[in-house]
């Protein structure tokens, strides 16, 4: 319906987030990698947590990365959607504007971040395990329910947050 508008807002949000920074869009991959390194150091290094048949620290890091990527996308989408209508009040109050596009653009931008980090995950998996399993092909199928659920929650949170301000 408003796919061009959602895409334009999402692209602006994604590129604006890293504009002017030294590493640019590389932060989309570096941020989760640093987060995983810290979590792996704390939980696998200090507390001795292990995962997989080999009980390797690297397998634990990959396992942790797989779980934190969708969670980070979800929490980022919901957190940004809570204020998106208030932040864009100038658009909402002056013209007839489809409000549902603002949270949808936030979710799409967060999905873009997740896809960049997923590339990092796949590269790390190739480097550590020297192979990618055939189940990797299921990734697009798994992203669809995640995207729909996140979009629903983002719309709900944005609507609840926007009621007092409009």
For the largest beta-sheet, the strand count, sense and barrel status come to: none
Helicity range: over 70%
What gross morphology would you assign? elongated
Radius of gyration: 18 Å
Domain count, please report it.
1
Question: How far is it from the N-terminal to the C-terminal residue, by CA?
Answer: 24 Å
Q: Roughly what fraction of the amino acids lie in strands?
A: under 5%
Strand elements, count = 0
Weakly predicted, low-confidence segments: none
Helix-strand pattern: HHHHHH
Q: What is the arithmetic mean of pLDDT?
A: 85
Structural class: mainly alpha
> Helical region count?
6
Describe this structure in words.
With 166 residues, the protein is mostly helical. It has one domain (3-162). The chain is 76% helix and 0% strand. The chain has six helices and no strands. It has helices at 3-18, 27-46, 57-87, 89-94, 101-129, 139-162. Helix 3 runs antiparallel to helix 5 (101-129). The model has no long low-confidence stretch (mean pLDDT 85).
């Amino acid at each position: 319906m408003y796919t061009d508008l959602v895409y334009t807002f999402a692209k602006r949000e994604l590129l604006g987030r890293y504009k002017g920074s030294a590493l640019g869009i590389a932060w989309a991959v570096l941020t989760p990698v640093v987060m995983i390194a810290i979590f792996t150091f704390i939980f696998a290094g200090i507390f001795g947590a292990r995962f997989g048949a080999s009980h390797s620290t690297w397998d634990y890091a990959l396992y942790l990365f797989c779980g934190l990527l969708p969670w980070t996308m979800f929490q980022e989408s919901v957190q940004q959607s809570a204020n998106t209508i208030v932040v864009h009040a100038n658009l909402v109050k002056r013209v007839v504007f489809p409000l549902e596009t603002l949270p949808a653009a936030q979710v799409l931008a967060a999905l873009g971040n997740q896809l960049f980090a997923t590339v990092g995950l796949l590269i790390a998996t190739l480097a550590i395990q020297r192979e990618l399993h055939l189940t990797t092909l299921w990734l697009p199928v798994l992203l669809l329910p995640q995207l729909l659920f996140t979009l629903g929650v983002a719309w709900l949170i944005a609507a609840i947050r926007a009621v007092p301000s409009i």
